Q: What sequence folds into this?
């Protein structure tokens, strides 16, 4: 019986090539989208599971209330690690401080810049690093280092690096005690290419063992067996209060299983994050596959009259309904299996581009038995879903009526097909609307005034001791190259604020009011270099020696403080008086989607660790860099010339939204494509069914335009109904999505108008081929049998 089903299925494929092509193409695209999204979802859900300690690892999170807000962040204090280890030994198996960042590693003449970190001795064991050579058992030795396989290859080639010496940041000699396997991309520590002991004499944080008020490093913990995360979090909630006078600071343990997908906090509680995208794209994948299944259902039921006699004959010679159902389901499963072959080819071709857009390193797991079991199960499931309605519909025909020629599908036989078309275009139109709104939000934030000029700005980290102490001479040398307009130093780039402080006091300050300001340490030339805009007072100036202790506030800081006419006012901080010399327009230095951070700029030479310079706009960037590099080699010979364009750093702040928008665009286009395939097939069927009616109308004087309108109107009405369903649904969901941004665009009427008009135009283009072909056919040929 099964052999017979397969034979009939292939006969139908050969006999109805266009119908088969549309079905297989639609199913293939839908299954390819579902498979790509499935691989992406699996990659997201398996994030950090590379570490065998996944279920017991956690990170200490700190929640504070400042300026009327209650943010939760990862930066904590150095002494907290020892406090947890000694006072709560039964709850924590290991604790480890970590401070990550870019460092220069050198062996002889080889110098590379890579991201690594300072870590306490337990971290390698906590991460369950897979050692290729050596061991991390001696990692507590302050002169040791463990490196990744890629670093070992870059610095030592094929030689064994164990027991060899690496110089870090051109000042710290470290002995390689082990080489570990490079971490996969879907781990939180993917970029960490080496680890150095935290309490090394050249690590500044190692001097902060009693500093309970200086947050700046991360603290990771491994919980003891059978210990509950929430119970321990409640136990250590107030652990810092006896040491740190900010009475509203709370501590909690955030499990590794939630680091990636539940990274958003509200009032100290994890409320979501990327898990929302996982759900969203999972639902989109399911809907796109549903669209492909709908095509199969529509085309199969549309051609019901052609298979009615087959059903009648089979029933008359003894076939029972269950056998017919099995036959039609078998046919649809065969279609799905053929589509699977095409799907695997599509996914293989699309995967590199998909990885680039999604910022992933997903590979096809062909060697995984579970992948094949899931793929085959998924294919059979798709085939059954796609073929279920046609199977039950076709098997219900009465053989007597069919064979007597009195069988008619009825006035409402096409109603289910119309409903399914409405569902298809509702999903497609909603995706189009959502995509437009996402890109509008991105563009809205990109067009936001940032308060300074990013063009031509370059940032260079001061990562070796040689580069310090040469500010004036290096600045003069750079300007004399003719490539640089100006240069300045600071403790943050123009796209970040890494220092926040409270404890500011001034005359008239309300009692109990202790705001936290972003604090940016700069040199004299910072304002001129970045091009900020002074709105009151003046910039820092060498003509005023007292400016070494002066403050410049941004507009948000002035507004928060409530100081009227701040220029000339005295603000006391760190037991010193500081005069406000000027006010600058707000600069967007952090998220472009949030309000500006209240910030104070000050002259603190000991804090600076970044160089910012502005390249002359009249000089090509490549030529300018060739002139700039020798100057940095002169003052910083122990470091490669690594720099970052501030424009690129600012653009990276849009990466998550850009990724969502790009993926949504692809899925929307594919959804429209699948829907149009279905419309194309249905239009062909309708034109074929009404060919004699068209002939009669043409003989009676109907024009091609009239006939085109007659055949197209039905489909346009269905798309219009889809619009009335999709628009409210998309508006509701996208309005909720926009609410998570403080700085957001609005949803305007033209978005829906463009989406609706686009859907109608696409529909007309799709059905017009068959409509015009039918309208232009010779009516004599169509009516001669009458």
A:
């Amino acid at each position: 019986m099964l052999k017979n089903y397969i034979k009939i299925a292939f006969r139908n494929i050969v006999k109805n090539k266009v119908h088969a092509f549309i079905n297989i193409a639609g199913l293939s695209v839908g299954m390819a989208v579902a498979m790509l999204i499935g691989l992406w979802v699996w990659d997201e859900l398996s994030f950090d599971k590379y570490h065998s300690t996944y279920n017991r690892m956690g990170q200490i999170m700190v929640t504070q209330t400042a300026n009327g807000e209650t943010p939760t962040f990862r930066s904590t204090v150095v002494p907290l690690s020892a406090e947890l280890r000694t006072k709560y030994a039964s709850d924590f198996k290991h604790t480890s401080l970590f401070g990550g960042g870019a460092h220069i590693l050198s062996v002889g003449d080889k110098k590379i810049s890579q991201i690594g970190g300072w870590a306490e001795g337990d971290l390698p064991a906590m991460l369950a690093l897979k050692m290729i050579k050596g061991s991390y058992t001696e990692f507590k030795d302050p002169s040791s280092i463990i490196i990744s396989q890629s670093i070992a290859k870059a610095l030592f080639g094929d030689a064994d690096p164990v027991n060899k010496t690496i110089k870090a940041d051109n000042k710290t000699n470290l002995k390689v005690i082990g080489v570990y396997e490079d971490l996969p991309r879907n781990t939180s520590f993917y970029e960490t290419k080496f680890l150095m002991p935290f309490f090394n004499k050249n690590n500044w944080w190692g001097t902060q063992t009693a500093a309970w008020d200086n947050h700046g490093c991360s603290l990771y913990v491994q919980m003891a067996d059978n210990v509950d995360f929430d119970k321990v979090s409640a136990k250590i909630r107030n652990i810092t209060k006896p040491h740190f006078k900010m009475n509203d600071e709370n501590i909690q343990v955030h499990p590794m299983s939630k680091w990636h997908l539940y990274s958003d906090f509200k009032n100290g509680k994890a409320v979501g994050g990327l898990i929302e995208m996982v759900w969203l794209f999972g639902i989109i994948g399911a809907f796109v596959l549903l669209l492909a299944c709908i095509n199969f259902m529509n085309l199969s039921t549309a051609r019901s009259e052609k298979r009615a006699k087959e059903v009648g004959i089979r029933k008359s010679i003894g076939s029972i309904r269950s056998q017919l159902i099995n036959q039609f389901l078998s046919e649809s499963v065969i279609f799905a299996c053929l589509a699977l072959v095409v799907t695997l080819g599509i996914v293989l071709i699309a995967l590199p581009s998909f990885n680039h857009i999604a910022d992933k390193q997903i590979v096809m797991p062909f060697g995984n038995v579970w992948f094949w079991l899931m793929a085959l199960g998924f294919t059979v499931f798709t085939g059954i879903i796609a073929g279920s309605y046609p199977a039950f519909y076709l098997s219900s025909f009465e053989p007597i009526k069919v064979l007597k020629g009195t069988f008619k599908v009825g006035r409402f036989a096409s109603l289910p097909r119309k409903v399914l078309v409405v569902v298809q275009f509702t999903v497609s139109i909603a995706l189009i609307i959502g995509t437009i709104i996402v890109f509008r939000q991105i563009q809205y934030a990109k067009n936001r005034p940032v308060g300074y000029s990013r063009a031509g700005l370059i940032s260079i980290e001061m990562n070796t001791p040689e580069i310090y102490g040469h500010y004036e001479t290096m600045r003069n040398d750079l300007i004399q190259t003719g490539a640089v307009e100006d240069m300045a130093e600071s403790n943050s780039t123009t796209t970040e604020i890494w220092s926040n402080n409270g404890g500011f006091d001034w005359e008239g300050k309300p009692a109990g009011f202790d705001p936290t300001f972003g604090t940016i340490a700069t040199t004299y030339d910072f304002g001129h270099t970045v091009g900020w805009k002074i709105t009151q007072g003046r910039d820092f100036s060498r003509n005023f020696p007292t400016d070494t202790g002066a403050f410049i506030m941004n507009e948000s800081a002035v507004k928060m403080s409530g100081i009227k006419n701040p220029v000339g006012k005295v603000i006391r901080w760190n037991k010193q008086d500081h005069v406000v010399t000027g006010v600058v327009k707000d600069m967007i230095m952090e998220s472009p989607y949030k309000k500006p951070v209240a910030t104070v700029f000050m002259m603190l030479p000991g804090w600076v660790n970044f160089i910012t310079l502005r390249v002359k706009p009249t000089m090509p960037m490549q030529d300018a860099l060739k002139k700039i590099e020798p100057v940095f080699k002169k003052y910083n010979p122990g470091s490669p010339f690594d720099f970052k364009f501030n424009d690129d750093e600012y653009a990276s702040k849009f990466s998550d939204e850009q990724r969502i928008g790009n993926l949504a665009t692809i899925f929307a286009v594919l959804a429209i494509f699948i829907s149009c395939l279905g419309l194309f097939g249905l239009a062909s069927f309708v034109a074929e069914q009404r060919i004699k009616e068209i002939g009669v109308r043409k003989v009676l004087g109907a024009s091609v335009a009239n006939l085109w309108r007659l055949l197209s109107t039905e489909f346009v009405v269905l798309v219009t109904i889809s619009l009335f369903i999709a628009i409210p649904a998309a508006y509701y969901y996208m309005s909720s999505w926009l609410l998570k941004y403080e700085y957001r665009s609005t949803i305007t009427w033209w978005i829906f108008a463009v989406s609706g008009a686009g859907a109608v135009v696409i529909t007309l283009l799709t059905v017009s081929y068959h409509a015009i072909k039918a309208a232009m056919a010779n009516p004599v040929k169509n009516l001669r049998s009458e």
